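Our collaborator T.R. sent over the components below with a one-line note: 'Predict the complex.' Nothing else. No constraints on interfaces, no templates requested, no preferences about which chain binds where. So this is a plain run: every listed entity goes in together, and whatever single assembly comes back becomes the starting point for the next discussion.
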Amino acid sequence: MAESEALLNKQALMTEKAGLGKLFSPKSVAVVGASREKGKVGHTVLRNLINHGFSGKIYPVNPQAKSILGKKCFPSLLEIPGEVDLAVFAIPAEAVVATFEQCGGKNIPASIIISAGFKESGRKGASLEAKLAQKAAEDNIRVLGPNCLGVIDTSSSVNATFAAGMPPKGNIGFFSQSGALCTAILDWAIGEGIGFSKFVSLGNKLDIDETDMLRAMGEDEHTEVILGYLEGVKDGVRFLEAAGSVTQRKPVIMLKSGGTEAGARAASSHTGSLAGSEKAFAAAFTQSGIIRAVAIEDLFEYARAFSSRRYPKGNRVAIVTNAGGPAIIASDAVERSSLRMASFEKETIESLRTSLPPSANVYNPVDLIGDAKHDRYAAALEAVLKDPNVDGVFVIFTPQAMSGPEEVARAVARCGSNGKPILPVFMGGPAVEGSAEILSKASMPNYRYPEPAISAMEAMVRYETWRARPAPEYKSFSVDKKQVQRLLEEAWASGQTEIGEYTAREIISAYGFKVPGSVIANNVSDAEFIAEKIGFPVVLKIASPDILHKSDFGGVRVGVRSREEVREVFHEMKERVKRLLPDADLWGISVQEMIQGGKEVIIGMVRDPQFGPVVMFGLGGIYVEIMKDVAFRIAPLSIDNAQEMVREIKSFPLLQGARGEKPVHIEAIVEALLRFSQLVTDFPEIYEMDINPLKVFPQGREPVALDARLALKRNEVSQ
Amino acid sequence: MAESEALLNKQALMTEKAGLGKLFSPKSVAVVGASREKGKVGHTVLRNLINHGFSGKIYPVNPQAKSILGKKCFPSLLEIPGEVDLAVFAIPAEAVVATFEQCGGKNIPASIIISAGFKESGRKGASLEAKLAQKAAEDNIRVLGPNCLGVIDTSSSVNATFAAGMPPKGNIGFFSQSGALCTAILDWAIGEGIGFSKFVSLGNKLDIDETDMLRAMGEDEHTEVILGYLEGVKDGVRFLEAAGSVTQRKPVIMLKSGGTEAGARAASSHTGSLAGSEKAFAAAFTQSGIIRAVAIEDLFEYARAFSSRRYPKGNRVAIVTNAGGPAIIASDAVERSSLRMASFEKETIESLRTSLPPSANVYNPVDLIGDAKHDRYAAALEAVLKDPNVDGVFVIFTPQAMSGPEEVARAVARCGSNGKPILPVFMGGPAVEGSAEILSKASMPNYRYPEPAISAMEAMVRYETWRARPAPEYKSFSVDKKQVQRLLEEAWASGQTEIGEYTAREIISAYGFKVPGSVIANNVSDAEFIAEKIGFPVVLKIASPDILHKSDFGGVRVGVRSREEVREVFHEMKERVKRLLPDADLWGISVQEMIQGGKEVIIGMVRDPQFGPVVMFGLGGIYVEIMKDVAFRIAPLSIDNAQEMVREIKSFPLLQGARGEKPVHIEAIVEALLRFSQLVTDFPEIYEMDINPLKVFPQGREPVALDARLALKRNEVSQ
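Returned assembly:
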């Protein structure tokens, strides 16, 4: 199966865009397994195609029927007279495999396999799916599914699903790895009148996957907001690349589940124990500008705001309200968020003072008082939207006697042309239903509570910040790649998969990391001599490829201050090895320069099966181990990525020089991260790696890597 | 005004329950300002009283009318023939003051003042309100408002508000400091069919406040869940006491706003800069078992779950679903929460295997597969509810072809009798509306998404944990209170409001804190002699009441190791004072035992104007200053409070002995917190206080307070 999948991936890459056009806008559709029986999937699919305005040809395929729902029936795909752009399969899995080759015979470029009973159902299904994949690849047929709900495209009026309805036309494209989530969301969309451009259930992703969808929707003129639900991605690197480019043009909002994987990885490094697929996804989303929805509700609330296509240029917001309490609640939520309450210009305050009664509050939040009608809302909104310090506005309305919710809604709707986002919060039930409809027609989603509107505004600010950022810059250092290649080959040759300090320091040295001066001494007098040359105090360490956890073994002694002490410790360490690990290969005792002062940081990497090298940064010791105060990004790191990582950790103030200390040289850490990124990108066989600690200092003194370790694994995870 | 308020508070306390019965269940109600004109408040109030089934007498009061809405009108309260239990005022503020005394004349025990134009409108209104308060106190009349929406009581069919409707009968009691929030919530409740017992708008809280409401609803047999919105409390201590007792019987869910107060307090201590009214409220809610809603949505979603009155005995939950995707999303959300996915007993798995098709997943989450009908839901729910490892269940349903949402809802509703909470998540729009209604009738709130259901279940677990906890124990230490009294009086007498180390150490010593041995030396030879007696190394410090920030001044030297060094440092310090602060009162140089080893913690207190002494605990240095990793509770602390504080901080593992260190003696810290609590409770004039650092050690060695400071303020904030 792995081989056929590889083949298929290759084919999919070659014909990247072929076929998806026919999937969304076919001129003719055949339904294999079309049925006369109501409630059967093959019946519902056919009915959905017929009933929602599709203007192309529809061919039911069923050897047992002459015609279904008024359409002439054909015994097989091959007997259909005209061209077929899209074949939809709604027959049992075994039958699909038998019938699918007719697609090749008929030159059908696209297919949807709705049928279940494939990979998701166990080994037998998986083998059926592999056969299907091979055929699809051979005949160059794009496949959606199997085990999916199908496809809806509102602009071409195609509803090739067995769902119970058709959403209104709109600018949201949605794809989902869960068919059930599709049905639930479809039902909501219909209930709330939320418009969609495309609606796709991915199913088992035999061929067409999230990356294909991202690209197709990225290029689709009817789609202005992309929404997705994922449980995993088929090819992380390809997905990231596509996402990074699509998010330049359109917002992409994703809900990703399956994030908790407690102890899934037996970790041999700090980074390994703290990273995980959840962290990799989070980093990937951040780095490619994807807006992450944490809950299903976010997916909706964000989509509603984004679909208005009015994005804030900054995070300064105003609140206009007819009620004090809800405005206080909203202001609190703003303060807790990354948004800030705008300070109005003098002109704004003057203008508000002129148009509002004296008891109104003309500062932010602007309180129009309970008896406010539409005119006050209109005047206040106009003034506030004009203010250059305001990037977005929340309009709060609570039903009051005589306040005319619908007129207020109309007044708010009229202000939409200003370009700044307005998120209305008309609170209540039946009293504000009419308002919600009026607002919705003006592309202003109404929110029932202030908090989700605030989250949505935050998401929009994040997106605008992403879009406005300069193109990422990468830096390539001149390094000794060949030396690392040689060292890793030697390790492989000797069967080593874990590489400890001695080889690891050579590896990182080749990539420009400074390491402490250190020489392995074979006898006491050498050790004394070297220590004297290096200068006291020194560090003594057992040097053995068989002892990786030197500290735990008692194989590290810092602060050795004299020839006598060197002598003493040297003998003690040799004795300890002889006694406890008599078979260990003892290279000698290493005498090392003692690096005093500075702060300890840790730089690490673990290779994620989907996204590749996930780089970690944090402050050494308890900050990493207990506070878990670390930042992740996927390599290769841009300069901005590295800058962000250093600033993202909570303990960043410690590097800036808290408590009167000199600040650490941040740019030196950034450079270390970039060099590290280059190393782990250059060598995919490095599976896990820690530089721990890296000692960093105030400007003028280079960082020094005191220890490093890495683990190797060949090919299995290379992308 | 302050005096009349104090008088009123006193009176309110004396007649705690008097009048509130008449407010909620009057036999007769007069509406002062009843109006014939539609849309006027005085008209709406009268109509609401008449239209919602109130069986008592209704008296419109209006000198200009003969009758309104078919009720005979009276020119004044005094001319009403029978007794009046409740007077509702809907006339301008000035007129209220003039008319209010008729209540006294007529012996009316309760009143609602709907009219605005009082304290909220400025100085003039505040003086009107003060007059009203005085009259109410003199005549012993309970007052709700002014500036409020009024009161609804569904069990006595009283709707004395100008709101647009009446909520269904139910078991939720709601009170709110914001009238607008009332109208919005009322409208929702009506739209979604959520039942209320009482619905109260507090307004300006001239008399009746949140504590009165908490008590009244706590005793009300129709109220099983109490919901509230607060912007502040009138008397924190009284509120806490009431809350602590009510939450033993009924859940109390509160939304508190106005939490952000950046820099409101000019802080002179660490604790002062980290504590604040927001922290005090959070601690108060925790300590009195109030469930805190962070967003308006929580208030609802929690209330819906709690109103079923089926609470989980633990945090182990099961998920039963007909769809994989939403179940994965839900499991993720469970893992992120304080809930845990239950592990089923063998019998449960066997029973599920027997009743479900082979493709179903019989482990948690139980996946019934897309074609599941009500029978599978019933069988699975029955099995799962029986399992002793399951404390609560989420039932997820997504609309699928032929799945019969309403039958499934009925099957779920039938399982309600088991006693364990079931929170249904029927996802979708129109397709599940019927189900939601069926579930609602069986006291099962339907949730549109899994995440809010999970939050609601968490809140219920927290509540059950609170209810099941043993009664709090307090510990009183035998201390030298008189000594502290004497020291504080001396400080007052000399005009000191900030007390530094020398007096502070005497104060904490009197409460059982160990302090380092220390003697003030007046000359060099004394200093040398004392240092030798104490034993080297020692700490030398400038001893002056005028130099509080000794370290910053360069007035502390640790690790002084010899007589020579003592001599040198002594001269240096004296010189420094002479040069820089020639007028300072220099007591001498203190020679102090140097405490080596141990960990530094900080214990502090700042007095909150509403709740009194807020005690803080954290690890010293960067943990407090940069990571802001601290815990708060309001004193007096129970033993459990102190235990929780130590364990609540993120850096707790450091005290437990991370990285191979010996654990610190936690009980010694708990005792220190309790002694500190006793001290700040005994002396309300201590306004702010830090013991920083307190050095703590492994078992066997007592903590030592290295430094302490406190600030005094008299009476202003004493409760």
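Summary for T.R.: The mean pLDDT of chain A is 90.
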